């Protein structure tokens, strides 16, 4: 359920104001807030149902979280996990022994007879007490050292697993807001808190052992003292859990706002948008937008701080009262002669130790609970991302699914594919059918937004159709492992902040002859010749000695990247949009030659360049409305003929303007 005006009234409260289902939407336009009537921004909304369900589920999932954390720790470092756990537990055993020995010492000291004799009698117990304390100290040191070693190992494993998933999920996941929020939470807090969960799980076990030792010691002294000690833990425990929950709720509610804040801060601090920020004088606008999100974040955080302080104060007050009760009970037992003075003395020690351990336990449980909420996000993202990986992409990491190795491409077919982007209300492609055979060049043409890039991404297996299929020699590509067999030169190709060579190789092994061939085919060799360090030039101005290229130069590098891969299917999505006329002409020639032994899909608005394609498919509002050779389509007199005529006319007009008498 999306919320309406989530923080509209948050000057005093973070309680969400929910829009009743029957309330007309126009209330949005009349709401009196500091954004003067703007409707609630997307970054202010969140899924309240999910939040509450998540919290309840997480509270129940604490044992599961602990088990997951310990499993992760075990996988990250077996020896360190074992030493940390065993060291803490054994140290606890020595604590109990210490109490028993203390009681013996006190009993000897409080016994009748001359003092030197009493001290002599107490000596063996004192020696044992000292030995127990030394051993306990040694064990704790070993455990602490192991824990410290474990932390970076766990962090590394958690982050590696996260990045393994973010690079493996379906491309469509990146169009999904919920996925982004889940990923942001997992990256921001999930990963760092994974180590905290492991650390606090061990600390909680240690504190539990400490409390159990003190409780056991008290139980040995007198059974009544045991429940009294536990009573003092309740208020602090309640306060800790409540405070943790408040903090997490705020974090959850702010996850979309934080993403917007990071995005705005990048726009103001990164190099790429810096020119437009200045050219369009965007400074005030961006700062104002940033201020809105930052104000919301601050408001929510201050509110949480206030509520957490109140909860903690209440918890402290109740703990004080409970402690008073415990000492009163102890005094009553002593006065009634139920317990002797020596036992009462040890009991005071055990109560104090028990309380310290209890306070530690409550504190660690609180941290565990709180970190567990964020770690829960990490696990949730893990589960979510795993469901969003394609069968092909999942295969390498032990899912048991082994995709078939495909035969050499004879024919690639889009078999009546329909595709709707996540969250979109209408399909970007409807029943689209195209075919490209080895040795052929096909062209996809059509107006802006007609679905050409979407179809290309489906052909490359980057998106999967909701109906229909992409077939490689007749087999559905979702069952094939096509890695390395398809090359895509994307319209919005990435300007990788790497060297020229790395930009072209893209992780492939170096083959000098092929590199030179690919660079020449794309015209990138001319770009390299202008750079001082040639192929070793770093294409990132943010680092010393880094270069930047012009749009057309970048495009040549991107095209060379496509040529370098020995792919069977090559998709060029507007490869010449930034090229000058000479480079464009040369590139189309090379693309035609490159089709030898390969299948080529070419998307372009330069219709003069697709005249020689083996087949041209015309897309219109997601449908393939025309197909055929240039001559056939011109004869058809449809959309293609119209668009071609318009472009040709534009050139003729220019011709006339330039040469009125020519
Ligand atoms: N990631 C996305 N999420 C939602 N809708 C999208 C996404 N990408 C594209 N669209 C929509 O899908 C439709 C087809 O877009 P597509 O990029 O395939 O068009 P195109 O023919 O390549 O256009 P152009 O000639 O401008 O490059 C458009 O309506 C576009 O707005």
Write the layout of secondary structure elements.
Blueprint: H1 48-60, H2 62-76, H3 78-110, H4 115-166, H5 177-221, H6 225-231, H7 233-253, H8 255-269, H9 274-279, H10 283-335, H11 341-387, H12 391-394, E1 411-419, E2 429-437, E3 441-446, H13 452-459, E4 467-472, E5 475-476, E6 486-489, H14 500-505, H15 512-522, H16 524-530, H17 551-564, E7 569-573, H18 581-594, E8 599-603, E9 615-620, E10 623-628, H19 630-636, H20 639-658
Parallel strand pairs: 3-8, 3-9, 6-7, 7-8
Antiparallel strand pairs: 1-2, 1-4, 4-5, 9-10
Bound molecules: adenosine-5'-triphosphate (ATP).
Adenosine-5'-triphosphate binds at residues 175, 421, 424, 428, 446, 448-454, 491.
Write structural notes for this entry.
This protein has 662 residues and is an alpha/beta fold. The chain has two domains: 49-258 and 323-389, ABC transporter transmembrane region fold, CATH 1.20.1560.10; 411-628, Rossmann fold (3-Layer(aba) Sandwich). Helices cover 60% and strands 9% of the residues. It contains 20 helices and ten strands. It has helices at residues 48-60, 62-76, 78-110, 115-166, 177-221, 225-231, 233-253, 255-269, 274-279, 283-335, 341-387, 391-394, 452-459, 500-505, 512-522, 524-530, 551-564, 581-594, 630-636, 639-658, and strands at residues 411-419, 429-437, 441-446, 467-472, 475-476, 486-489, 569-573, 599-603, 615-620, 623-628. Helix 2 (62-76) crosses helix 3. It starts with 47 loop residues before the first helix and ends with a helix. The chain binds adenosine-5'-triphosphate. The site of adenosine-5'-triphosphate (ATP) has 13 residues, from helix 13.
